[in-house]
Amino acid sequence: GINAEYGKQWYQRRVRETMRKEHAKVEEKHTHENCLIQYIQSLVFGGVDGIITSFAVVAAIAGAGYSTFYVLAIGIANLIADGLSMGLGDYLGSDSEIKFAKVELAREQWEFDNYKAGEEAEMIEIFKARGMTQEDAEIVIRTTAKYRDVFCNEMMIHELGLTPPDDETSPIKNGIMTFISFIICGIVPLLIYMFVDVHSKSDDTKFYISIGMTAAALFILGAIKSMASYMSWWKSGLSIMILGCIAAGTAYGMSALVEHAVASRNSTTFCNNGSRIPD
After folding, report:
1. In this predicted model, what pLDDT tens digit does every residue of 106-132 receive, in sequence order?
2. In the chain, what's the furthest Cα-to-Cα distance?
């Protein structure tokens, strides 16, 4: 009996110790995520867009048989222009979202200061609609209402469905991150063309190498994305790579379709200008 009781107590201590360690790991992961999450979206968004945009240019120009010079000239010019556009768009979008949230928060604070009872009643009804009893909802809301900032933030979340504005979020940093990610990742499909004679004709070998590098870059972006999620790095990498390849393949298919249509039109024009079609 003594040994059995001792063994039971030892086992319970080990379980508690293991649970504490796992909880500490989760807390550490959450702290790490909070530092990364605001930039991961911009990094992945800008990177995937940059890769697919550049690959579409490479597919269209290289597929038409132009020299490496045209692939690089048009590809890099397009990369910089689209990168600036993406970065500016991310900045403006983030800035507008934060300003809108601040306006709504100020409105909720005014309503709290001037019509506190009405705001409390609204929150009680919201919590009741989600399954709380009248008594429990009143206890929670009356307690929360003692703290103005906490209550107004909860109103933002539960009534408006908005995230309270975070002073640490920087639209400028998000825009810069998107631009840098777009340029760095977007240069990948062009890299193989930078190490050959610029006057040489684009061939299938270079294009296939560009495809492989594009797929690898998409996988790496997906693995980076897993740092801010609970998905394993290889699953996240495969997910982004597959989706990115589908998008890149669609871009390549559209460019091939347009090229075929233009070639057919030119052939028809040539025949209509006096050339006789053989019997």
Report:
1. 999 999 999 999 999 999 999 999 888
2. 108
CA end-to-end distance (rounded Å), the chain: 105
CB atoms < 10 A from the CB of 215, how many? Answer: 18
Q: How far apart are CA 112 and CA 123, in angstroms?
A: 12
Radius of gyration of the chain (CA): 29
Q: Which tens digits make up the pLDDT trace of 143-185?
A: 999 999 999 999 999 888 888 888 777 889 889 999 999 999 9
On whether the CB atoms of residues 214 and 248 are closer than 8 A, the answer is yes
pTM of the model as a whole: 0.73
Taking the C-alpha atoms of 196, 219, 91 and 84 in order, what is their torsion angle to the nearest 10 degrees? 10
What pairs with residue 201 in β-bridges?
Answer: 67
Distance, in Å, from the CA atom of 225 to the CA atom of 36, rounded to the nearest integer, reads: 10
Side chain identity at 25, as an amino acid letter? Answer: K
User: Do the Cβ atoms of 109 and 148 come closer than 8 Å?
Assistant: yes
DSSP string across the chain: -HHHHHHHHHHHHHHHHHHHHHHHHHHHHHHHHHHHHHHHHHHHHHHHHHHHHHHHHHHHHHHTT-BHHHHHHHHHHHHHHHHHHHHHHHHHHHHHHHHHHHHHHHHHHHHHHH-HHHHHHHHHHHHHHTT--HHHHHHHHHHHTTSHHHHHHHHIIIII--PPP-TT--HHHHHHHHHHHHHHHHTGGGGGGGGS-TTSBP-HHHHHHHHHHHHHHHHHHHHHHGGGSSS-HHHHHHHHHHHHHHHHHHHHHHHHHHHHHHHHHHHHHHHHTTPPPP-
